[in-house]
Amino acid sequence: MKLHFDQIGNKLYSAFSAGKVKLSNVSPEIALGIGIVGVITGAVLACRATLKAEEIAKEAKEDLDLIEKVASDESNQERYSEEDHKKDKMIVYTKTILKLLKVYGPAVVVELLSILSICKGHDILRKRNGALMAAYAALDRGYSEYRKRVKDELGDEKEDLLHRGLKASEIDIPSKDEEGRDTTEKVPAAVRTKKPVSEYARLFGEGVTSEWDKHPGYNLQFVKSIQKWANTELKRRATNGVGVLFLNEVYDRLGFERIAEGQELGWIFDRGDPNQQSFVDFGIYDVNNERIEAFLYAEENSIWLDFNVDGLVRNYLPQNKITRV
After folding, report:
1. Which candidate in 33, 49, 190, 259 could, as Cys together with 103 as Cys, close a disulfide (CB 3.0–4.6 Å)?
2. Coil, helix or strand at residue 173
3. Is the separation of the CB atoms in 287 and 191 below 8 Å?
4. Do residues 243 and 234 lie in contact, with contact meaning Cβ atoms separated by under 8 Å?
5. What is d(CA 32, CA 17) in angstroms, rounded to the nearest whole number?
6. Distances (CA, A) of 147 to 120, 155, 244, 259
7. In the predicted model, is pLDDT for residue 18 greater than 70?
8. What pTM was estimated for this model as a whole?
């Protein structure tokens, strides 16, 4: 059996009025879905009501024409006063308005309830996001405090190595001895045997980023130029106080896809606080293995980039300057 749109409107109205649909207890997706269905239903009901409204308007015009005809007949002036004329017109107007309200009523109610549903869904989502950001901020503070305690215990250099999954070691660098013969020289370096452990690390390689090039030398210079840009831009933004650079902005420059966290995470440079003066580092000199060493010598055309983000940085921006990146 085909369900009549008037019945749909009545069922929606009954569900809301009886409290059967409690938007505060449902997900924003469901609330949004109800709102969209309601808007479509209300639009269909309004179209159907318009057809009926044309008949109502036609009847009202006929009644008004009859009233005017009677009022204009001189033979009826003694029996049909001006006051009677106005009274009859008012009756026709009132009945017409009541009929139109009855016809358009379901559509109006459904549209209003649909808008309420959409607004409620947005409100639920806003509150959930607020709670999520508060929880994340608390987690970020706790993690920052933990790192500070480790730094106090082990020192900044050792803490940074542990944080990034590195260890102090040495690598062999080609060189020449006093007689001009090829030899190697051991140079201190931070070494990692596996790929970066950070979830924000990205492979600057073929098929991963649109900025990759088959020529190794170009890739090396490009990555170094973006790292230089990031540090310059971070300090430039702090000209009048605190500067913030978001991870997604760096991803954009390197040709990586954005991530949701990249709109909140990044680097801080506060000229008034020496402890908040970051240096953007992609980890291109933290040697992973022989392939990364080859990249530095322009013999390899890809490299893992591991970004030393400070954490949640959006809260450091003035409220009136917060924008999506």
Report:
1. 49
2. strand
3. yes
4. yes
5. 19
6. 40, 10, 21, 24
7. no
8. 0.46
